[in-house]
Amino acid sequence: MRKKERYDRIISTFEEIMPEPKTELHYDSPFHLLLAVILSAQCTDKRVNMVTPALFEAYPDPASLAAATEEEVFPYIKSVTFPNNKTRHLLKAARMLVEDFNSEMPSDIDNLMKLPGVGRKTANVMLAVVWGKAAMPVDTHVFRVCNRIGFTKDSPNPLATEKELVKNIPEEKLSNAHHWLILHGRYVCTARNPKCGECVIADWCASYGEKN
């Protein structure tokens, strides 16, 4: 199967069954989404959603969090992975937002990536989810799924995967494609024992085709 056909068929199938995909992280403002995405690194969205309601209530904006201490913030997020590092990242990010960005969330990738705890994936999540921009965050799910289904072939790293996806997926569908691939990797194309029998894109999946 040619690459273009594979992309077209898989994207059109996802579009049909999931026309309006959304992030599973709960948030009520761009600032709170930023906190949630920082906390979600190597942690499940389910766990993050358990701790963020109290965190969001305590710190509704960058100024309130910037004025807090590690000792005050840590108890709110102690059950997520790497809570010590993430506590420091949250505080430093809030302080930079206040001091350098007048408490406004940057809307470009370069300034987003200046924020402590914000790498390329997190910055792209903000661009895709908050502003609906043509951005493709690549996490472990997206990286794995793309190599399996044949969107990429032996991709060496997430950046290479991102570039390949941006090149082959229509710009207006990129932000949705990010959600489609993450959700597919989270619930169907799992790291261990992928549910190929339940997969709606199995007919066009490179790995499934090799096995059958």
Structural write-up:
This protein has helices spanning about 5-15, 30-40, 45-60, 60-65, 70-75, 85-100, 110, 120-130, 140-150, 160-170, 175-185, 205-210. By secondary structure, it is an all-alpha fold. Helix 2 runs antiparallel to helix 8, helix 5 (about 70-75) packs across helix 6 and helix 9 packs across helix 11. The longest helix is centred in the middle third of the chain and has 19 residues, at about 85-100. The model has no long low-confidence stretch (mean pLDDT about 95).
Topology:
Blueprint: H1 3-17, H2 30-39, H3 45-58, H4 62-66, H5 70-77, H6 83-101, H7 109-112, H8 120-130, H9 140-149, H10 158-168, H11 174-187, H12 206-211
Helix pairs in contact: 2-3, 2-8, 5-6, 9-11
Keyword list:
212 residues, Endonuclease III, domain 1, 60% helix, 2 domains, mainly alpha, 12 helices, Endonuclease Iii, domain 2, elongated, 0% strand
Q: Report the average pLDDT across residues.
A: 95
CATH class of the largest domain: Mainly Alpha
> How much is the radius of gyration in Å?
18 Å
Total number of strands: 0
User: Looking at the chains present, what oligomeric state does this protein adopt?
Assistant: single chain
Secondary structure class reads mainly alpha
C-alpha termini separation: 14 Å
What composes the largest sheet?
A: none
Summarize the structure.
By secondary structure, the protein is an all-alpha fold.
